[in-house]
Amino acid sequence: xxxxxxxxxxxxxxxxxxxxxxxxxxxxxxxxxxxxxxxxxxxxxxxxxxxxxxxxxxxxxxxxxxxxxxxxxxxxxxxxxxxxxxxxxxxxxxxxxxxxxxxxxxxxxxxxxxxxxxxxxxxxxxxxxxxxxxxxxxxxxxxxxxxxxxxxxxxxxxxxxxxxxxxxxxxxxxxxxxxxxxxxxxxxxxxxxxxxxxxxxxxxxxxxxxxxxxxxxx
Length: 218
Ligand SMILES: [Ca+2]
Ligand SMILES: [Ca+2]
Ligand SMILES: [Ca+2]
Fold this sequence. Notes:
The protein is mostly helical. It has 12 helices and 4 strands, in the order ααααβααβααβααβαα.
């Protein structure tokens, strides 16, 4: 189940980066004249695992997609919906937006964008699992509840849309969540802690393999 979530994130990131790449090369000529130079590039280079060239590319792409330099949740949802025209990606985009908007001001800045990407794409296995845990732990109280998991699972099914074959039954997301808890909730107290989460993930070869796929995205 975490493999499913990671798989979708991976596909999203690949598509988004691919689109950004295409758009930025289309406008390369204009951009070279505008000559955007992000402030604090050196600082970001220290704070993330991206090189200066990679940061410049990401910055141009980000600016190109959102010239104001910040993305609010509606813009984020719009960008997302282009990748999932057959389904409703708004709830999933909402969860992802919240995970990236670390200062909770309702806007995604370039700094937040690259900080998140750096953790997911270049972080250690612990960084990635930690990021994933906080993604699921929606209210940030340190525990993943069945309800939090179910909301994310449902949003993934909504995003996949109604053309999935065979059609998704209503109880399928709940069954996924039950399986997740059987595996992760080691002390059977009904919630999953970061320790339980990381330990269970590290013992699961499928999860580890899907985590390693992030190495080749960008
Ligand atoms: Ca923010
Ligand atoms: Ca929680
Ligand atoms: Ca537990």
